[in-house]
Design brief:
- By secondary structure, the protein is an alpha/beta fold.
- It has a domain of about 325 residues: ABC transporter type 1, transmembrane domain (ABC transporter transmembrane region fold, Up-down Bundle).
- Helices cover about 65% and strands about 10% of the residues.
- Strands 6-7-8-3-9-10 form a 6-stranded mixed beta sheet, sandwiched between helices. A 4-stranded antiparallel beta sheet has the order 2-1-4-5, covered by helices on one side.
Length: about 600
């Protein structure tokens, strides 16, 4: 596999791995093409030495020769096709896996500015264009070149002057193909971009189909999709116009080529002795020459199609390079300092999640993004095993604190520490595996309930641990009523479950980790009051775990060891429940409104 930290897609490095197989494929093409070139030679001998000379003696061997050529072509063409299909499939698979790894390596800010439909288009459609080149278009181009060279050689051997006609035809076709490629380049880029937009529109609509129906937006969504589809249609019509403009020119050249060659060749046969420019041409040589002209017509006609394919692949490579040029803003300094290629080779004796106690401190932390400060001069600390409550209005920066703690983004200013160690000095996998989160945006995969709870630790988590987490989160109450219990497959994003049920499963997923730090970001908002109180009781009984609870309800944070209240990205108030009530500020106002 190629390294995902490269800022360019180096296709040559992929092809180089299969150079020997491609060499065998090229050798097969060469042999197959040479066999093709021998067929007109045999036909010439049949016409001149058998039919005209009326000598049947060599006919048997000549016919056996044609049979051998047919069998040989079948063998070597099959070898070429099979080898190229295998190599193309392997290369496309590796490119797709490495592209996916590259995407996974990028920081969260990259995904803030790109939609999932565009990424899906690049992972699927753009890599398919590379597959086309690796599997058959690239080798077809090689075959075209070999066929042109060998055909020209055999035509020149028959008659040099007559060979000028097909050579001029090839040059004219090449000029037309180059002109067509310049027109196709930008068109393919626009088509693929519009394809991404259309895919994203469809995916977004389908994933939110219940919301669409709830707000009766079907007409709006259909119109929105229609606009992208119409634009895609118009771009493809523009593409067709290019082919309609240039392909007939190539077709005309190839058709005229055969006619002009036949006329000139016939003249040489009839008046060859009278023309001093060239030697006489026999009927057999003329038939052979026309066969070679037929052989060279195919490469000329293929130029337009190959130009199409290479222009499409070129546009795809440009689009993929836009991803490869992106570099993760979150750099794992612990890995870089050790010059390691992946975190699997880190010295786990130095950094292990189980060695982290969970003491957390923010020291004058600020976060600037989108032209403004999301957080400004945030400072607080909590000891290992303590509970921190975070409250504040929507948009005050509560979730941003958690994103900075998990290094989804890096702080613009200040230092964040866990156990008095700057989190930038901790390996990213260790840091993130030390923090279990239940976020506002509940996400469940299309998998079993058991599989969703075991997410990331499928092999190491026991069935008993899964069961205990279901009971602690009060998920067992509804899971046990399902036909397959925790082995029930739930739909995409937990379709079929209520909001409260999805929240309880994500809470179970977090509790099952037994991490040093547990984060609950408004994680009980969809629960009824009784269930919320029961889960809070379970959380209060958890020991040896630092808890950060983000909530809008006083009931969720009132027992916390420390509560901070955010306002416009800075800490407006800090203290215990009783201290904040005495302060009579924002927290007291919230308390009064709720009680």
């Amino acid at each position: 596999m190629q390294k995902t930290n490269s800022n360019r897609l180096n296709l040559f490095s992929y092809f180089k791995k299969y150079m020997f197989l491609y060499f065998i494929a090229v050798l097969s093409i060469t042999i197959s093409t040479l066999l093709d070139m021998l067929a007109p030679v045999i036909v010439r001998h049949i016409v001149d030495d058998v039919l005209i000379a009326q000598n049947t003696e060599p006919l048997k061997m000549l016919l056996i020769g044609i049979l051998c050529i047919g069998v040989g072509r079948c063998v070597f063409q099959y070898a070429k096709e099979y080898i190229c299909d295998v190599c193309g499939s392997k290369i496309a698979t590796e490119v797709r896996v490495n592209l996916f790894e590259k995407i996974q390596s990028l920081s969260a800010n990259f995904f803030d500015g790109i939609n999932s439909g565009e990424l899906m288009s690049r992972v699927k459609d753009d890599v398919d264009r590379i597959w086309d080149i690796a599997a058959f278009m690239g080798i077809l181009m090689v075959e075209v070149i070999i066929r042109i060279i060998t055909t020209t050689y055999f035509m020149v051997r028959i008659n040099l002057v007559l060979s000028i006609i097909p050579v001029l035809g090839m040059c004219a076709s090449a000029v037309v193909a180059i002109l067509m490629e310049t027109k196709l380049d930008n068109l393919f880029g626009a088509i693929q971009q519009e394809n991404s937009e259309m895919n994203n529109t469809a995916a977004e609509n389908l994933s939110g189909i219940r919301t669409v129906k709830a707000f009766s937006r079907e007409g709006y969504e259909i119109n929105k999709f229609h606009k992208h589809n119409q634009k895609y249609y118009e771009l493809n019509i523009d593409l067709s116009k290019v082919f309609v403009k240039y392909n007939p020119v190539i077709q005309t050249i190839t058709r005229m080529l055969a006619i002009v060659t036949l006329l000139c060749g016939g003249l040489l046969v009839i008046k060859g002795n009278e023309l001093s420019l060239t030697k006489p041409v026999t009927i057999g040589e003329l038939i052979a020459f026309l066969a070679y002209v037929g052989n060279i017509v195919w490469p000329m006609e293929m130029l337009g199609w190959l130009t199409n394919g290479f222009s499409s692949a070129k546009a795809s490579v440009k689009r993929l390079n836009k991803i490869y040029e992106q570099m993760p803003q979150i750099k794992d300094e612990s890995v870089l300092s050790k010059n390691l290629d992946d975190t699997s080779s880190l010295n786990t004796d130095l950094f292990r999640p189980e060695d982290i106690t969970g003491a957390i401190s923010f020291e004058h932390v600020s976060y600037y993004a989108g032209g403004k400060y999301i957080l400004k001069d945030i400072s607080f600390s909590i000891g290992a095993g303590q509970t921190l409550g975070i409250m504040g209005a929507t948009g005050s920066g509560k979730t941003s604190i958690i994103n900075l703690l998990k290094r989804m983004y890096d702080a613009t200013e200040g230092v964040i520490k866990i156990d008095d160690v700057d989190i930038r000095e901790l390996p990213l996998p260790v840091l993130r595996r030390s923090i279990a989160c239940v976020m506002q945006d509940v996400f469940l995969f299309s998998d079993t309930i058991d599989g969703n709870i075991r997410l990331g630790v499928r092999d190491s988590m026991s069935t008993e641990e899964v069961r205990m987490s279901l009971e602690q989160s009060h998920s067992a109450e509804f899971v046990d009523k399902m036909e397959n219990k925790e082995h029930t497959v739930i739909g995409e994003r937990g379709v079929g479950l209520s909001g409260g049920q999805k929240q309880r499963i994500t809470i179970a997923r977090a509790l099952s980790r037994k991490t040093p730090v547990l984060v609950l970001d408004d994680s009980t908002s969809a629960l009824d009051t009784e269930t919320e109180q029961e889960i809070q009781q379970v959380l209060n009984e958890l020991t040896g775990m630092t808890k950060i609870i983000i909530a809008h309800r006083i009931s969720a944070v009132r027992k916390a060891d420390k509560i901070i209240v955010l306002e416009d990205g800075h800490i407006a108030e800090c203290g215990t429940h009783e201290e904040l009530l005495k302060l009579g500020g924002l927290y007291k106002e919230t308390y009064d409104s709720q009680y």
